[in-house]
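Narrative of accomplishments. A recurring question from our advisory board has been how the design workflow behaves on a single, concrete structure rather than in aggregate. To address it, we present the structure tokens for one chain from the evaluation set, followed by the sequence designed for it. No filtering or post-editing was applied between the two.
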């Protein structure tokens, strides 16, 4: 297994407190129990690396796009510079951004796996999170892999503005291509899953699983109550509430999650209709790399100006006009060369 380090600014702490019942818990034993409270069964937050270790077969994890890192296109700052917040989160979690993507096996069944980490800036979805998810989906489509995304996020990353919001549409478009190949996408919702993540890929799974008592929603409870001028149920925006209203397929305790995935994957792997998708030029100029990623890589370079931006924009529009969408048993994305003038 690729070495996965996870450190914390509180790494010397031996004890922690349950967020629900307040019981004092010994961290070493809590980790062995998959961070489930011994007293009340509350599911505390897990790091991305801990989730990977708890789900995948030993030594099967292979990371993808590990070193993709965020830029600062808006030069954003509040009390701190956005770049400072990124650096602090990277140092504390040993992650480049709020998601780990890669491949692995669950009882020898290969899968493409993406795991979000709430401890990296609240698991917020910025350009890197969106880019890594899209590349993972494209990889899964090209190789005919089952896709599993584990969500833990406060929503879109405000420090990146429209660059973060556009990830919602970008990921949804990539998932549409993936689903044309009749491949299985499993979405796993953990606490919290809110905002733009809920409004996009989190709720687009063929199967949507959740952990018990997970906070799942779009807008905050207080905002909805003030808008509707009425009091909401006590269990509103919990996984149990969503299951009762038909928005989830299953609620699974963390200790049974791997077994439940094995049962699901064993059933699906015999499906005769699954096939590998086709995305032309996947490893050269994928749809994600052609557009936003090109600008994101150049925008912080010295000498970059509005003129440069408009030139790149015009080139991208010219090339994107030549996409051909062919509807067959799966969706082909063919990128034509620039038309000769």
């Amino acid at each position: 297994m690729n070495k996965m380090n996870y450190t914390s600014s509180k790494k010397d702490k031996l004890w922690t407190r349950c967020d629900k019942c307040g019981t004092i818990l010994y961290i070493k034993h809590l980790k062995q129990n998959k961070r489930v409270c011994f007293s009340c069964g509350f599911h505390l937050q897990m790091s991305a690396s801990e989730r990977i270790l708890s789900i995948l077969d030993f030594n099967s994890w292979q990371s993808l796009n590990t070193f993709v890192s965020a830029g600062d296109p808006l030069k954003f700052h509040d009390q701190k510079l956005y770049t400072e917040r990124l650096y602090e989160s990277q140092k504390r979690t040993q992650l480049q951004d709020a998601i780990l993507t890669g491949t692995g096996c669950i009882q020898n069944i290969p899968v493409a796996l993406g795991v979000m980490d709430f401890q990296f800036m609240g698991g917020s979805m910025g350009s890197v999170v969106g880019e890594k998810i899209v590349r993972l989906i494209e990889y899964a489509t090209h190789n005919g892999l089952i896709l599993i995304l584990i969500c833990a996020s406060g929503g879109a990353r405000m420090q990146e503005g429209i660059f973060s919001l556009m990830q919602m549409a970008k990921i949804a478009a990539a998932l549409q291509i993936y689903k044309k190949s009749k491949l299985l996408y499993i979405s796993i919702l953990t606490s919290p899953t809110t905002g733009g993540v809920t409004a996009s890929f989190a709720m687009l799974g063929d199967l949507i699983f959740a952990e018990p008592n997970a906070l799942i929603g779009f807008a905050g409870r207080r905002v909805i109550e003030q808008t509707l001028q009425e009091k909401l149920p006590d269990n509103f925006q919990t996984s149990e509430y969503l299951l009762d209203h038909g928005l989830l397929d299953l609620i699974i305790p963390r200790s049974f999650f791997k077994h439940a995935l094995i049962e699901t994957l064993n059933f699906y792997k015999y499906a005769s209709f699954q096939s590998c998708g086709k995305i032309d030029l996947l490893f050269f100029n994928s749809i994600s790399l052609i557009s936003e990623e090109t600008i994101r890589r150049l925008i912080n370079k010295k000498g970059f100006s509005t003129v440069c931006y408009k030139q790149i924009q015009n080139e991208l529009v010219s090339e994107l006009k030549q996409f051909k969408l062919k509807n067959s048993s799966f969706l082909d994305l063919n990128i034509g060369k620039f038309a000769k003038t």
